[in-house]
């Protein structure tokens, strides 16, 4: 289709200083969005924004997604710099992997707070702005772990499953306001974190993937772009798996 997919739209992406979030931000800028990178690391957010072309294309804002005031400030910074949010991508996340026997309550709470409460904050705060304008797209990052559960990830799997339920509930609430809410569920994606896992664990995961390879961050970004753009205008409450067919 002619023209950039996100021309002159304001996109806010949390946890976007690196990894999947940065790949999404990069693709959105390529499609002529003006991007606000929210990250708990202010220096990393500023550096990422500079890589994307500086203040005319992207800005970095420190944001702890577990703090609703921080999310308000993030969205206010977006409005001041570029205009009210058109696209919200709730991507911020952490891992604190451990078996149930060894996982601490703090490790459980940290992951639930960043992923689940953080996504809730981003969804509800962005939706409040979008509903007034009768348009907007929210994209939440879930995971294959939320569908099948992974050993050593009772916290992460619970949070990512919760994001699916939250996405569907929010989609039902916001549909008549012209706001769409969808989710992406990546599988094994090649990154510094996944490549650091033991070779035995890597090989086991690879054996479960019909396509026979790990995904790239750019392959998650393109799906986020689809859900953010008019190409998915009749889609809400959906979860799109980016897994190479793993656990289909």
From TrEMBL:
Keywords: Oxidoreductase
Origin: domain of life: Bacteria
MF (Gene Ontology): oxidoreductase activity, acting on the CH-OH group of donors, NAD or NADP as acceptor
InterPro entries: KR_dom (IPR057326), NAD(P)-bd_dom_sf (IPR036291), Sc_DH/Rdtase_CS (IPR020904), SDR_fam (IPR002347)
GO biological process, one term: fatty acid elongation
Leader peptide range in chain numbering: none
Span of domain Ketoreductase: 9-192
Stored SUPFAM superfamilies: NAD(P)-binding Rossmann-fold domains
Family statement: Belongs to the short-chain dehydrogenases/reductases (SDR) family.
Record's protein name: 3-oxoacyl-[acyl-carrier-protein] reductase
Taxonomic source organism: Gordonia sputi NBRC 100414
């Amino acid at each position: 289709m002619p023209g950039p997919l996100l021309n002159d739209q304001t996109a806010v992406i949390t946890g976007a200083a690196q990894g999947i979030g940065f790949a999404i931000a990069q693709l959105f800028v390529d499609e002529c969005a003006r991007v606000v990178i929210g990250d708990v690391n202010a220096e990393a957010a500023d550096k990422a924004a500079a890589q994307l072309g500086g203040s005319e294309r992207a800005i970095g804002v420190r944001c702890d997604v577990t703090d609703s005031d921080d999310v308000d400030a993030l969205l206010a910074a977006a409005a001041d710099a570029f205009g009210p949010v058109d696209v919200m991508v709730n991507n911020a996340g952490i891992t604190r992997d451990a078996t149930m026997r060894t996982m601490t309550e703090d490790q459980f709470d940290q992951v639930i707070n960043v992923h689940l409460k953080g996504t809730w904050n981003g969804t509800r705060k962005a939706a409040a702005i979008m509903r007034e304008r009768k348009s907007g797209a929210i994209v939440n990052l879930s995971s294959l772990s939320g569908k099948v559960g992974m050993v050593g990830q009772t916290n992460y799997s619970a949070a990512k499953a919760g994001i699916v339920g939250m996405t569907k509930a929010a989609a039902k609430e916001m549909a008549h306001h012209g706001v769409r809410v969808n989710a992406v569920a990546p599988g094994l994606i090649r990154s510094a974190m996944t490549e650091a896992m033991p070779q035995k664990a890597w090989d086991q995961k690879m054996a479960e993937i019909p396509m026979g390879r790990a995904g790239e961050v750019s392959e998650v970004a393109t799906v986020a772009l689809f859900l953010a753009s008019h190409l998915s205008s009749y889609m809400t409450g959906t979860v799109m798996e980016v897994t190479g067919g793993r656990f289909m």
